[in-house]
Amino acid sequence: MWIVKxxxxxxxxxxxxxxxxxxxxxxxxLVFYSENQTNGYGTNGRPWVSSDRSLAAxxxxxxxxxxxxxxxxxxxxxxxxxxxxxxxxxxxxxRVSLGIKWPNDLYKDGRKVGGILLHLMSTKNKKKFEQxxxxxxxxxxxxxxxx
Length: 147
Prior knowledge:
The protein is α+β, with helices and mostly antiparallel strands. The chain is 22% helix and 41% strand. The chain has helices at residues 13-24, 71-90; strands at residues 2-6, 9-10, 29-34, 36-37, 40-41, 47-49, 56-62, 99-101, 105-108, 111-124, 133-142, 145-146. The protein has one domain (2-146): BirA Bifunctional Protein, domain 2 (2-Layer Sandwich), CATH 3.30.930.10. The protein has 2 helices and 12 strands; from the N terminus they run ββαβββββαβββββ. The strands form 3 sheets. Strands 1-3-7-11-10-9-8 form a 7-stranded mixed β-sheet. Strands 5-6-12 form a 3-stranded antiparallel β-sheet, with no helix packed on it.
């Protein structure tokens, strides 16, 4: 089950999600979203401007496997494909086709309409007293305009 949190207005859904993982994360599957993100950022810290009809969302969930050395390179593509297909099916009333530009951009009609920003984090499982580290995956999906 996913826990969905509407942030209403926020600087960055990503900042909220990362702070949550660092401070109080306990294996939940979380979605933080906002229709009013004021200080979003993309790859290499580039500003990301959310328009009045955009959605910014960050998802946090555990990975239950060890990530192979090359797997992180494939994750942006895997999640871009997944999100594009979900949006095509669920969000658009008419049949819309979204394209993907490696490694993390979503395109519609030749224009960038979104992007995927990934973070892999390791954290201790707070529910157990073991010293084993677990890998966590965090992903951000946003639709807006890059400055």
